[in-house]
Write a structure and sequence with these properties.
Order of helices and strands: HHHHHHHHHHHHHHH
Strand content: under 5%
Structural class: mainly alpha
Radius of gyration: 21 Å
Number of strands: 0
Number of helices: 15
Shape: globular
Length: 334
């Protein structure tokens, strides 16, 4: 029986690669000529991709409308900033609550829905919210966006400047804090039950796992994380528009997750990094046709890295280490 707690303790330990990864993100700020505005966007989109990974990678629920939760958090933060609540950290936490409630209700709605019907439900929710925001010009500003958003200095000391210095550390700090929570969530017994339901829902039902109830919980957690990403975007740019709720945003985050690799929290981060760096580079080369090359990149990743870049690299590294170990042991390399 002692093997079970030891296994969970092993999953909870941080590897050297993880520590090095986060130290590299913090140290990137000090590199010469680094685009810290782009890196801040990568942190925000990485969090958004991780939120979708909870549904797709860990529970096996595909969604074409995840931008609904992203946009809900963005507009909540915008309304708070516009009407006098400019403190960023508490505003971020408050913005997560309505999206979490919306996610929980969505989970209740789709408990007995699967396949194409599930995709249509999530897409329909996204389109309803997008149309509402776009048409409610008196409330949201419509296509012109929500005006007059004010955000107080972070911790009362650090103002959000046009260079993005405060935004960088604020986005990175929020990303790391939520990553720690999500990492503990997916490595918990509940997180393992989610993965079991993804692999074989009938077997999990026979084991007594509340499969349908799990959907509502994971939707709520995923929606809250997506809302945090949306709120971060609003607070660091002090602007929000209906584009945060567009289908294009849902499609982009899905592409990021496929590129990085679903079922790995770091996959969303790696996918956001690759997507946004490629987008920035390709848009500079071809402002009109850059999305063609993104599509080509997606085709190549799906063709040669079927599970995504990160899982494929992990598999390759394990194989290489195994061959080196056999070679050092005197046996023939595999």
């Amino acid at each position: 029986m002692s093997a079970v707690p030891e296994w969970f303790a092993g999953k909870a330990r941080w590897s050297g690669f993880e520590i090095a990864f986060w130290c590299a993100l913090a140290g990137a700020y000090f590199l010469p000529n680094i685009d810290i505005a782009l890196l801040s966007q990568i942190f925000i989109w990485g969090l958004f991709a991780m939120s979708l990974d909870l549904l797709l990678g860990y529970r096996g629920i595909a969604s074409l409308g995840h931008a609904a939760f992203f946009g809900a958090g963005a507009y909540c933060a915008g309304f708070l900033g516009k009407y006098g609540w400019g403190e960023p950290v508490s505003g971020l936490l408050i913005s997560m609550l309505p999206a979490a409630a919306l996610g929980w209700l969505t989970g209740k709605l789709v408990q007995r829905v699967s396949g194409v019907a599930l995709l249509m439900v999530t897409l329909g929710l996204n389109l309803i919210l997008f149309d509402f925001v776009q048409r409610s010009t008196a409330l949201t500003g419509g296509d012109d966006g929500l005006q007059g958003i004010a955000v107080d200095p972070l911790l009362g000391l650090f103002r959000f400047d046009i260079f993005g210095r405060t935004a960088y550390w604020y986005s990175l700090g929020a990303l790391f804090a939520l990553f720690v929570f999500l990492r503990a969530f997916v490595h918990s017994p509940f997180g393992l039950a989610l993965t079991g339901s993804r692999e074989n829902a009938r077997r999990m039902i026979m084991l007594g796992s509340p499969v349908e109830g799990d959907i509502s919980i994971v939707f709520a957690v995923s929606a809250a994380a997506a809302a945090a990403a949306g709120a971060l975007l609003t607070q660091t740019t002090q602007f929000v528009s209906p584009a945060t709720l567009s289908f294009q945003r849902s499609a982009d985050v899905l592409v990021m997750l496929i590129i990085g690799g679903a079922g790995r929290l770091y996959g969303g981060l790696i996918g956001a990094l690759i997507f946004l760096v490629m987008k920035d580079w390709l848009a500079a080369l071809s402002p009109v046709y850059w999305y063609f090359w993104i599509g080509l990149l997606l085709v190549l990743v799906v063709s040669f890295f079927r599970k995504g870049v990160l899982p494929s690299l992990e598999t390759g590294m394990r194989g290489l280490i195994a061959r080196l170990g056999k070679a050092r042991g005197g046996g023939p390399p595999a």
